[in-house]
Structure to design on (122 residues):
């Protein structure tokens, strides 16, 4: 096994810091697009593309985007979980690209939960 260099350790530190910074309040939100096989089959890729486009258009850098596997509610796919710092996560179901843009603009950017798409408050 190769020895770790200072550069390798810095990369590990930066990765861990970026993954835990939401807990420390350094980011506004974390958005998880559920991309298990059921989610992908139901249209999660266009949802992810829509989210990334909305983030780029808004020119924000304080939103973490991540993916996860199946959450066990295949009938509700594609699903998205939005976690705002200091608030309970909200799970949205049956999301498409347009709904994702609305969730991003209203929930992530303005803090207004989109109850018509929400399926759970965790």
């Amino acid at each position: 096994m190769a020895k770790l260099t200072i550069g390798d350790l810095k990369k590990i530190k930066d990765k861990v810091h970026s993954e835990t910074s939401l807990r420390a309040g350094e980011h506004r939100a974390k958005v998880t697009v559920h991309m298990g096989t059921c989610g992908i089959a139901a249209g999660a890729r266009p949802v992810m593309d829509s989210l990334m486009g909305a983030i780029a258009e808004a020119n924000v850098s304080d939103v973490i985007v991540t993916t996860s596997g199946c959450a066990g509610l295949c009938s509700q796919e594609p699903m998205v979980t939005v976690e705002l710092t200091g608030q309970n996560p909200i799970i949205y179901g049956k999301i498409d690209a347009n709904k994702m843009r609305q969730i991003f603009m209203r929930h992530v950017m303005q803090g207004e939960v989109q109850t018509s798409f929400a399926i759970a408050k965790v």
About this structure: The chain has one domain: 27-121. The domain at 27-121 is CATH 3.40.30.10 (Glutaredoxin). The first strand starts at residue 29 and ends at 34. The beta strands are 29-34, 63-68, 80-84, 90-92, 118-121.
